[in-house]
Amino acid sequence: MNFNFKDFINKSRKKIDNNLKNIYSRKNTPIIFYFILLILYTIVSILLTQSAKVAGTIPVFGQIIPYGIFTGVFSSIANICIILLVVLFGKLGFITSMIILLGQFPILIVNLVIIHTPNSIPGIFTNIFTIISIICIYLINQSIQKFQEKLRKQAITDGLTGLPNRLAAMEYMNKFIKKNERFALVSVDLTNFKRVNDSVGHDIGDKILIEIANRWKNLADSLKTGTSDFIARLGGDEYAIIIRNYSSSLEILSSLNMYEEELERKITINNYDYYVRASFGFAEFPFDAETSINLFSCADAALHKVQRANTNYKILRFTSELLQLEQNAEIEQKLRQAIENEAIECFLQPQYDIAHKLCGFEALARIKDTDGTFISPSVFIPIAEKAGLIDRVDVLVFKKAAKFLAEIIAEGNNDIIMSTNISVRHMMKSNFIDEIKSLLKLTNVPANRIKIEITESIMIDFNEKAVRCINEIKELGMKIAIDDFGTGYSSLSYLQKFPADMLKIDKSFIDVMNTSDASKKYVATIISIGHILNLEVISEGVESPDQLDTLQETGCDYIQGYIWGRPMPLEEAKKLIAVETGKEI
Ligand code: C2E
Ligand code: CA
Ligand code: CA
User: Fold this and answer.
1) What's the pLDDT tens digit per position in 375-394?
2) pTM of the model
3) Dihedral, CA atoms, 127, 128, 131, 132, nearest 10 degrees?
């Protein structure tokens, strides 16, 4: 099974970051509600005094109710307003409520002592109890807020060095991204720090990490670099520096040189001297990426490049080609793993004759990614060719396709032909023919049931070696198809000499075939040339009924395309054969 540790860490990190954000973030209630509560409180207080004064009655749901009864209702609503003010608006709400409640005391006391209104006595008590309640609510709220603040601090601080952590760095960047302010993110990785940890132990390793953090923090705080810098520790021996207030990339470089110098001064711990170096890769907002996550990817791509480069100069700026290199390196890693675990899968796409009779399959390589999706061969085949891994891919697919063929032959099928792709680079290898021979022996399939697809580019460097190779394949009894025909520059004279059995018209010609008369004639000409040279002709990438009609009219022999069948897993291909043979009977 392919398990990508880096992907796993990145996904887990995102999840943890999100959870922490949810825990400590507290959304402020919009201030408009503060005024709504004040207005509501004022209205209810007016109604409260009015209802206390009026002696009449009012019919509610058929019952006659005295106005005085509503005093309690209005008083409760007023208290709720006061409590909500404290709960939702913290200090502001608390002060407002206290002013309101304390401000009522003189009126109540005047009512009681001077005007001799005894019914203001309950009002005095209600006020006292409400004041006690809101003081309690306010204090409890404050302690919850303090706790949240503490959580937040822990969530954004690196436990070892006290520096802000990755989450804090992201928040910091997001702030400037929102303001659209230019800044640079620098990813820093200490060189060979694992060796330091392994040789002197984690305690000393931790002290070195703390010393580096202190040095860089002091340098950033001193503003000596001339730029505004923010230092974070991302974990392990990785740090980040966010640089602002500069006018050119040169200033970033000069700041980074200062951080490098500061790092490379000897670090003395327990009377031993240590020397540490680091690599720096940086990317800029908004030029290289527009989100903090993508900026990290860009800065990391530059960092990885500088680490691989093995030069003395350790600072590199991101360029867009680096991201491609980084992605390719990741795919190459997945490819190596898939080869190692023999996890390169083989899908089969059906090939039919023009009357819709199944006559064969093309074996196509697939790599399943960690998330269950497939990486396209158009992506990993060129990488496999560059990395010298293509022969291993070809062999794995060949083996799986041949095993499948052996199984269906054992079940009595004797006409399905299996086409497999062989890269030109692979074919040019000195031991290619021996490899093919041993594969045939191993899988025990008759050579004449296998067709090798080689791209037309073989004819560009059509040399003696290629001719010898092709002839030997033919001598073994295998068939040969020229793939992607029409895209290369093969001349008719080469084509005439080339001992192929089939021409495969490239999908790009089928795509445009019905868009102009000239394109249609072009395809018809390829088919005629193929027939003149005694070659069978198959069209690939046939998707629509009108393409099929044209190909039938122009005399194409075979069809491969989504219109009649997509590439499918081996089990599905077996079912398809069963259905097709059933149809024949
Ligand atoms: P190819 O040999 O030209 O294979 C045909 C490609 O066209 C396949 O893509 C197939 O899925 C796709 N295709 C077929 N019919 C249709 C259609 O109707 N519509 C569309 N849109 N596409 C269609 P796939 O599987 O992605 O393979 C891409 C290329 O990767 C192949 O092109 C081949 O050059 C290479 N490849 C795949 N497997 C192997 C392998 O085992 N060894 C080597 N050397 N190359 C391989
Ligand atoms: Ca092919
Ligand atoms: Ca092709």
Assistant:
1) 999 999 999 999 999 999 99
2) 0.66
3) -150
